[in-house]
# Entry
Amino acid sequence: MLEQPILTEAGGMAHFAGRFFREGFRPRYEVGEWLYQCYVIGYQSLPLVGVTGFIMGMVLTLQSRPTMAQFGAESWIPAMVGLTIIREMGPIITALIFAGKIGSSIGAELGSMRVTEQIDAMEVSGTNPFKYLVVTRVLATTLMLPVLTLLADAIALFASFVGLNMRGVTTLALYTNNVLSRLAFGDVLPAFIKTFFFGFAVGLIGCYKGYYSDKGTEGVGQAANSAVVVSSLVIFVLDLLAVQITGLLGLN
Amino acid sequence: MLPEPETLAAAPPAPAEMATPETVLAVEHVVKSFGDNHVLQDFSLALHRGENVVVLGKSGSGKSVLIKCVIGLLVPDAGSITVLGQDVTQLDHAAMDQLRARVGFLFQSNALYDSMTVRDNLLFPLRRHWLAHRRAEEDTLVQQALEDVGLGHTADMMPAELSGGMRKRVALARTLILRPDILLYDEPTTGLDPVTSREISHLIREVQQKYGTAALIISHDMSCVRLTADRVALLVDGRCYAEGTYAQLQALPDPRIHEFFA
# Structure
């Protein structure tokens, strides 16, 4: 009984993703709307992602310091925090925050447009609503999340530097050197690549939930809620897959 | 057994200035079901140029389904719908978009884009069809469309700032801006007070007279039907049960027709 709705939902999303690839790359291109969505989804998420990144970097540093100090390994803090943030914490925390902010907003916006017939109005105006609403948003989330993750990583590393200087003295040059000397392309690249998939999942699930929303205002709430829940879950599943793949490639 | 529509009413009156009116919309033997719910069963209707036809029926009788089949939002299970000489059931997406530029649709809920100003709502269809090439041209068309519905001062307002009647007028302006040949109205007066409802009905008439557009109006508001209809088609049990002018149908003794006019 439980499997069938989940499989139906998964099938629906797969079909929706197929439609995205079929329609997304054929003209007419909605460049103006896509740029606007990049602004809304990327630029307007920056304060939240920045604050989260800053807190993440500082907390990680402050909490690990006493333990590292017990072993006389304080000099390893920049490398440890750097690896943790770049490889895992930066992408996953940013993606979850992004899912909470953008996934719910897309789900609610499209859901509301569906129940108030705005999507139908778009269609009768001679506009393909899938291209105008879905393709632009999914492309924007896919491209903006990696950018936001890079910024969050940078802010978190700076916060870690600030955290270290709260209890001791480290120069920025030494700190940067310590972080970079322990980072390899095998750490940075897979972590960066997986954020494209996280962004795609958040956009696609948010749009799917909103686009097929029904049951009036209750349906809009459900669309926003389930967009966040499902995309957060999918982010963890994708992360697990990414770890397995990088393991197979010998990058872990 | 349902009587044939022709037996109930005399031939529909042609618009005064046209001897042989051109049929701009022909619905022929359309069938549409949702599971076991057979909404339309062999429904047929013709709309001539410059004419207002009201499809009258009870709530849930399939009026909105009919109008959504006409505009291509729903696909009929059987039958054909010919709009301006093209069978909408056979058109691909691009051809349908071209056709939709010539057919305006006024939604029951108005369906204004609530994140856009009134001006942007009107510009949206205009820009999709590349009908204005300069900013000044766009401004003129927007202003003209808003003045046609008596709301010249609302261009920079948001839909949420407007009353129900004003929203209906803006929605009408948005359909008018493309100068369509056919207008489809889905319950244009539902949810409005009697005074505003009458104003909207008069506006529908004014649009018909000013632009000579044909209109298919879905309604169960008898005041709107009386004020707007050149011809009325009664939708009962998924079929066109009776057809004629308002006065002709009102005079018929059939109880299933009479209950609408009582």
In short: Confidence is low (pLDDT under 50) at residues 1-18 of chain B. Residues 194-211 of chain B form the longest helix (18 residues). Chain B touches chain A at residues 68, 71-73, 93, 97-98, 100-101, 103, 105, 107-109, 111-115, 124-125, 128-129 (CB under 8 Å). Residues 211 and 225 of chain B are 20 Å apart (CA to CA).
